[in-house]
Design brief:
The chain has 192 residues and is α+β, with helices and mostly antiparallel strands. The chain is 32% helix and 37% strand.
Length: 192
Amino acid sequence: MRVFSSVYTFDYSWEECSTANWRKYCPWNDKSPHVIAVDTLSREVDPATGILRTERLITCHQQAPAWVVSLLGGSNTSHVYETSYVSPAEKRVTMCSTNLTWANILRVRETVTYQPDLTASVPGHERTQFTQDAKITALCGGWQKIRSKIEEASVERFSENARRGREGFEAVLEMSRRIFGEERAREQAKLH
């Protein structure tokens, strides 16, 4: 098993990040053209806690390393199952995802959280801490060398995708702030 961990601070409030999270794979994000569909499977609010629980299926088109495809076969279309929990009371978004494609060969379990970064925020300028952890495990029987190679390549690719994902989400956040700011200005102009 290999582990990938990352902590990043977005220069946006938790409210902005938690709202923009639902648009993470929209056309504003030019860093995620590999995501071809995001289907919501279920969505419900727990009446006792107020936590929004959502299940989604994310379909991607990604090139696997050529040596992996030649060794194991497969397709360039992959599916990821994601469950998210939004707790407005705690100001926390937690998203847990796992791969469905090639799950008998490689298991990727990712957990991300968005929560206010109280150490970097000042009144009127809130920031959000993004924490990302992934456990990547190759399940190739007794071939330790092959398992290690698959895990190393997967962590490397995961790291590259994580960087691009943050860059893309920054673009979504920036566009959301601009669009919602313009809309607020229009609404306020109507009142005057």
